[in-house]
Design goal:
The protein is α/β, with parallel strands linked by helices. The chain has 2 domains: about 325 residues, Glycoside hydrolase, family 3, N-terminal domain (TIM Barrel), CATH 3.20.20.300; about 180 residues, Rossmann fold, CATH 3.40.50.1700. It contains 20 helices and 17 strands. The strands form 4 sheets. It has a 6-stranded mixed sheet with strand order 12-17-16-15-13-14, sandwiched between helices. Strands 4-3-2-1-11 form a 5-stranded parallel sheet. Helix 3 crosses helix 14 and helix 8 runs antiparallel to helix 15. The N terminus is likely disordered.
């Protein structure tokens, strides 16, 4: 399709839309009156919309695939999103605000002036924006199990998003990971639905602080409904095989807690339940979510999730919408999907009342968010993005998330007798390795990807205050002439996200094993710090070290690790999931009769 010429159905839509007259006339219409009840504003606007305009509101387009900015108004597009790594050419908060505001101006130029809802995955801080503070991934927040802290994380994330104009967060993830081979394990708070529900609700309260109408709120999204943490073999987009009572108690229960916390948006899961794709499961999306749980917000598909359903494009779209999907994250071929939906509605394959129902839910949230009154970025918040105050909260979160798995001989906290300390491993100076996936890009980056403090820098600063000399070794061997009293060796996984992280073998890599062995052979006591998105098989490494700390994926504030190592803060984290002793134990979860290396709730507090 040519980017220069709109297809015939767009031209028909534009011709049929010229009915309201000037913008001055629009300003007095009921839907534009903020003093009126939201339900009345929704119904007034809905009554004025053409079929084409209604269909446009149900479409979410990735900004990379937007053929022309004018298409936002031409198709009446309801939402744009940035996928991982999709942002302005200059990645800083100001340019994000410029970009999103430009898209918003395009939307407001449409006949009815309906603002777009701009969404992104801000899953551990506003992680798409360079300069934003990066919090520990959810598995670390689960280890801390501090609902007040998670709520504060959500509040900070919302403020940093609002500065750039993004008003919709695709979080929190309410997956209940039951198999560490799953590449999204770190996106879940832990293996128990109670923990996931408790912390998920806290994050929703933080993101939507003061209610959706507040100037400090963004729209939260609970994802992925449902069962994505329980797929057979931990395969991403796989099949969760279990009877309904088990499915409800394990994977649906957190959503009930989230709805009670004010949840207004749910994202469907790529996965299947007993062979039926969630995106086309009417029993799940309508019968359970709306009928049993009483959810009243709107349901959005995941990225291209509708395309995974069987049949041709028309059948896939009709199945998804009729099953309960209100907004389609397309994300690319919006012109074709728009035309297909016009045809489906004309044929009655999608009933007009079902279309109205979906649009009504979407518009209600837009009105609740105050988008019609406050459509643009709040640039007064730009100085707060990545501020020291925000970083201090993230640093506290890092310290609270650490789980001490071993402390033999009281190595922790670092004793006053330690005067020479060796920090080993390139990951200790690699902020990208600390942050993991979903940081600036989808899969994450090694190296100096974001501003912040590395583990090494945090240790060096803490050591300097105590008169401790610090040396660095990339391979675990002390520099010539340096005899350490203590070695801190940092090992772990490279960044990954989603299916790229699916891994049948959870052992540390050969290089990491060699690093631990070299550090142990130096003669000084060794503290291992593990950077990972899940428990790994660490028996050998555990035996070669005196202390072992699970640091998960701590984010941009590596000094939080030094706070615990040096005893400025006491370790308090506990395991949010069982830790396997061997690969053949997987999956391993509390109550399944298997004895792993460490149980759920384990953690030393030296």
């Amino acid at each position: 399709m040519s980017k220069r010429h709109a297809p015939y159905y767009v031209l028909l839509f534009l011709l049929s839309s010229i009915t309201l007259g000037s913008a001055d006339a629009q300003s007095v219409l009921p839907y534009r009156d903020p003093t009126l009840p939201i339900d009345r504003r929704v119904e007034d606007l809905l009554s004025r919309m053409t079929i084409g305009e209604k269909i446009g509101q149900t479409l979410q387009v990735a900004r990379d695939y937007l053929a022309n900015e004018r298409d936002i108004a031409a198709y009446g597009i309801g939402s744009l999103l940035s996928g991982g790594g999709s942002g302005p050419s200059v990645n800083d908060p100001e340019h994000w605000a410029d970009m999103i505001d430009a898209y918003q101006r395009a939307a407001l130029s449409s006949r009815l002036g309906i603002p777009i809802l701009y969404g992104l995955d801000a899953v551990h801080g506003d992680n798409n924006v360079r300069g934003a503070v990066i919090f520990p991934h959810n598995i670390g927040m689960g280890a801390a199990d501090d609902p007040d802290l998670v709520e504060e994380e959500g509040r900070i994330t919302a403020l940093e998003m609002l500065a750039t104009g993004a008003r919709w967060d695709f979080g929190p993830c309410l997956a209940v990971p039951r198999d560490e081979r799953w590449g999204r394990t770190y996106e879940g708070f832990g293996e128990t639905p109670e923990l996931v529900g408790r912390l998920g609700a806290a994050e929703i309260r933080g993101l939507q602080a003061g209610g959706l109408g507040s100037a400090t709120a963004v729209l939260a999204t609970a994802k992925h409904f449902a069962g994505d943490g329980g797929t057979a073999g931990g395969v991403d987009r796989g099949d969760t095989l279990c009877p309904e009572d088990e499915f409800m108690s394990l994977f649906v229960a957190p959503y009930e807690t989230a709805i009670a916390a004010g949840l207004e948006c749910v994202m469907a899961s790529f996965s299947s339940w007993n062979g039926v794709k969630d995106h086309g499961n009417e029993h799940l999306l309508t019968g359970i979510l709306r009928g049993e749980l009483g959810f009243e917000g709107f349901v959005v598909s995941d990225w291209g999730g509708v395309d995974l359903l069987p049949g041709d494009e028309g059948r896939r779209i009709a199945t998804a919408v009729n099953s309960g999907i209100d907004m389609i994250m397309i994300p690319d071929a919006y012109q074709r999907v728009y035309g297909a939906m016009l045809d489906l509605v004309a044929k009655g394959s999608i009933d007009r009342t079902r279309l109205d129902e979906a649009v009504r839910r979407i518009l209600k949230v837009k009105f609740e968010l105050g988008l019609f009154e406050r459509p643009f970025s709040d640039r007064s918040l730009l100085p707060d993005v990545g501020s020291e105050a925000h970083r201090a909260i993230a640093r506290k979160a890092v310290a609270e998330s650490l789980v001490v798995l071993k402390d033999e001989g009281g190595v922790l906290p670092v004793a006053p007798s330690v005067k020479r300390l060796l920090v080993a491993g390139s990951r200790s100076r690699d902020i990208g390795a600390q942050c993991g996936g979903w940081t600036l890009t989808w899969q994450g980056l090694r190296g100096a990807s974001v501003p912040g403090t590395t583990i090494y820098d945090g240790i060096a600063a803490a050591a300097e205050k105590r008169g401790v000399v610090v040396a660095y070794s990339p391979n675990g061997e002390p520099p010539d002439g340096f005899k350490p009293d203590l070695t801190v060796v940092v090992v772990g996984e490279d960044p990954y996200a989603e299916g790229a992280g699916d891994k049948p073998d959870l052992a540390l890599g050969p290089g990491e094993k060699a690093l631990v062995a070299a550090a142990a052979s130096a003669g000084a006591p060794v503290v291992a710090v593990l950077l990972s998105g899940r428990p790994l098989i660490i028996n050998e490494e555990l035996s070669k070290t005196d202390a072992f700390v699970a640091a998960w994926l701590p984010g941009s504030e590596g000094a939080g690790i030094a706070d615990v190592l040096f005893g400025d803060l006491r370790a308090r984290g506990v395991l949010p999931c069982a830790w396997p002793a061997s690969l053949d134990q997987l999956p391993i979860n509390a109550g399944d009769g298997k004895t792993g290396l460490f149980p759920v709730g384990y953690g030393l507090h030296p």
